[in-house]
Write a structure and sequence with these properties.
361 residues, alpha/beta, 8-stranded parallel sheet, 8 strands, 56% helix, globular
């Protein structure tokens, strides 16, 4: 039994942090499902930009969309939904077997809407309806402007993957939005079962402080932040408020570890996967990290519900001048800006690709 299977059996879902058309058509995704216990996947503009740039898999559909008069965002979402529908169908047996808990794929709203609540809500509703798949999450960033959009989308019955969370406080704000959306559905006589995950980014913490902290603290901040967040997650799941909602028929919003690829070349390539094994959570995993973990990874002790020594470790970072709250806010702002850049790069790539395909051959 390989490490990915052992991790799955320990109660953590592994979702591939990648999607390309060739990944689906070549049978590779099917193989990852069968051999590596992959039970879902996530996508983002950077992934699609890379796939469209490095290959011809999308050329025929791009030509078709151009003939239909589509370009820019409209074209991209058509291309992305084609892939994600196929992926969602591959994960449908998992989705059915787990009664909706697992087997999800994710599509992000335009990151340019990150600070526009009303348009984010409208886009989330439209994309979910166009997908025509019950196991598709719409990704909304957990920025201050995104929080009300998350609540409204959940109230509208749209499954949401909350992205761009970096701290316990940001996670709790997203969880609160989810809870309010569910409570409003119950008060309105609606079905309270609307699925959601909350994605906390890990490795960017360690990259942000690299060279600024003693060697003894190298590559320890991300996992300590995750442990602190996991404690808040477990406390919330055990709260009277959650128990009341469970009694009404809902299911918890699961915690998801994102940005789990190791960025320090001197650290283990499976650092975050091994360090964040925890039941009733999801870990998104880049393709290279997946292969590495299957080959030489190990599943040791699971995360402690009380966060273990996280507060002691975080205090040591504060003692050497790291302002955790300020850094969390900065990481979220930087993440939103990076998503904007990836989106703009993708739109430019689609335009140049379209122009090249329209030239006489």
């Amino acid at each position: 039994m390989n490490a990915t299977r052992r991790l799955h059996d320990a109660g953590q879902s592994l979702w591939l942090d990648n999607i390309t058309r060739s990944l689906i058509t070549s049978g590779t995704l099917r193989r990852y499902i069968d051999e590596f216990s992959i039970t879902g996947l996530t996508s983002n503009p950077t992934i699609f930009d890379h796939a469209i740039t490095h290959g011809t898999d999308y050329d025929a559909e791009i030509r078709q969309k151009l003939e239909e008069g589509k370009s820019g965002e409209a074209m991209f979402f058509d291309l992305a939904l084609t892939d994600l529908r196929h992926a969602a169908d591959l994960f449908q047996p998992v989705h059915e077997r787990t009664n909706g808990l697992d087997g999800w794929v994710s599509l992000e709203v335009s990151p340019l809407l990150a600070h526009d609540t009303a348009r984010t809500i409208a886009s989330a509703k439209r994309l979910y309806a166009e997908a025509r798949r019950p196991n598709l999450f719409i990704k909304i960033p957990g920025t201050p402007e995104g929080i009300p959009a998350i609540e409204e989308a959940i109230f509208a019955g749209v499954p949401i993957n909350v992205t761009l969370l970096f701290s316990r406080e940001q996670y709790l704000a997203a969880a609160e939005a989810y809870l309010r959306g569910i409570e409003r559905r119950i008060a309105s006589g609606l079905n309270p079962l609307v699925w959601s995950v909350a994605s906390v980014f890990i490795s960017r913490w360690d990259k942000a402080v690299m060279g600024r902290v003693p060697e003894a603290l190298r590559d320890r901040l991300g996992i300590a932040i995750a442990r602190r967040t996991y404690r808040a997650y477990r406390d919330l799941l055990n709260s009277p408020r959650w128990l009341q909602l469970l009694n009404a028929g809902t299911r918890p919003q699961r915690l998801l570890w994102a940005s789990t690829g190791t960025k320090d070349p001197e650290a283990s390539d499976v650092l975050y996967i091994q360090g964040l094994a925890a039941p009733f959570t999801v870990s998104t995993i880049p393709e290279a990290t997946l292969k590495a973990f299957a080959e030489h990874g190990d599943v040791g002790d699971l995360l402690a519900a009380d966060g273990g020594d996280c507060e002691e470790v975080l205090t040591r970072f504060q003692q050497v001048g790291i302002d955790l709250d300020a850094l969390a806010d900065q990481l979220q702002r930087d993440g939103a800006e990076a998503f904007d850049k990836s989106w703009n790069d993708l739109m430019a790539r689609l335009q140049s690709k379209g122009e090249a395909l329209q030239k006489p051959r």
